[in-house]
TrEMBL record:
Protein name: diguanylate cyclase
UniProt cross-references to InterPro entries, sorted A to Z: Diguanylate_Cyclase (IPR050469), GGDEF_dom (IPR000160), Nucleotide_cyclase (IPR029787), Rev_trsase/Diguanyl_cyclase (IPR043128)
GO biological process: cell adhesion involved in single-species biofilm formation; negative regulation of bacterial-type flagellum-dependent cell motility
NCBIfam families per record: GGDEF
Entry superkingdom: Bacteria
Length: 202
């Protein structure tokens, strides 16, 4: 906090100038406050950029830590998404093609999740999370199935997705526990042969 003291001189010759000096002082304070607004906006933009994955535009782990918990509660669905045999895609087709696959998955996931007021996070190399704050079993399966059939377009290598879904029912379940349940469902989908969806309740 800045404390400003105004000194009023005893000399009557300076008294007429005091209102003008006060106005100039107030104008200076106003200018300083206006300068702080762009700085605050720049800080907010930097913070938002730091919470985004630069390749796919999805939220990253920092974004998940910032507001993931706000999306998880009873009635929410957490989807753990993994590109099957992603290392082989990079090895056989090059990392550029692998990046294109990740961007296509993220774009499709965002197009499906955003209308549900949810969010998509990239939490690892080929691992994504989608959190939908209000989504029942039928709707979450529908979204996951549409995501599995994402448009790979011309030039993208053929690939499949495994998706684990955790439907949150426990009122006290935190976001970390919900993600662990979705991960367990994902591992089960992979164990059953990949290219499929597995759903659990949490």
């Amino acid at each position: 906090m800045i404390v400003i003291s105004l000194w009023y001189p005893q000399s009557s010759a300076l008294l007429p100038r005091i209102p003008m000096l006060s106005d100039q002082l107030l104008l200076g304070i106003l200018n300083l406050s206006l300068l702080a607004i762009p700085a605050e906006r720049a800080r907010e933009r930097l913070q938002a950029a730091a919470s985004r994955d630069p390749l796919t535009g999805a939220w990253n782990r920092d974004g998940l830590a910032r507001f993931g918990a706000d999306l998880v509660g009873p009635g929410a669905a957490v989807l753990a998404i993994d590109v099957d045999h992603f290392k082989a895609i990079n090895d056989d087709h090059g990392h550029g093609s692998g990046d294109d696959v990740l961007v296509a998955v993220a774009d499709t996931a965002n197009s499906l999740v955003a209308p549900q007021k949810g969010a998509v996070f990239r939490i690892g190399g080929d691992e994504f999370l989608a959190i939908l704050p209000r989504c029942d079993a039928a709707k979450s399966r529908q979204i996951a199935d549409r995501l599995r059939r994402f448009d790979q377009g011309d030039g993208l290598p053929d690939c499949t997705l495994s998706i684990g879904i955790a439907l949150v029912e426990t009122p006290t379940l935190d976001v970390e526990a919900a993600i662990r349940s979705a991960d367990d469902a994902l591992y089960r989908a992979k164990a059953l042969g990949r290219d499929r969806i597995h759903l659990v309740t949490a």
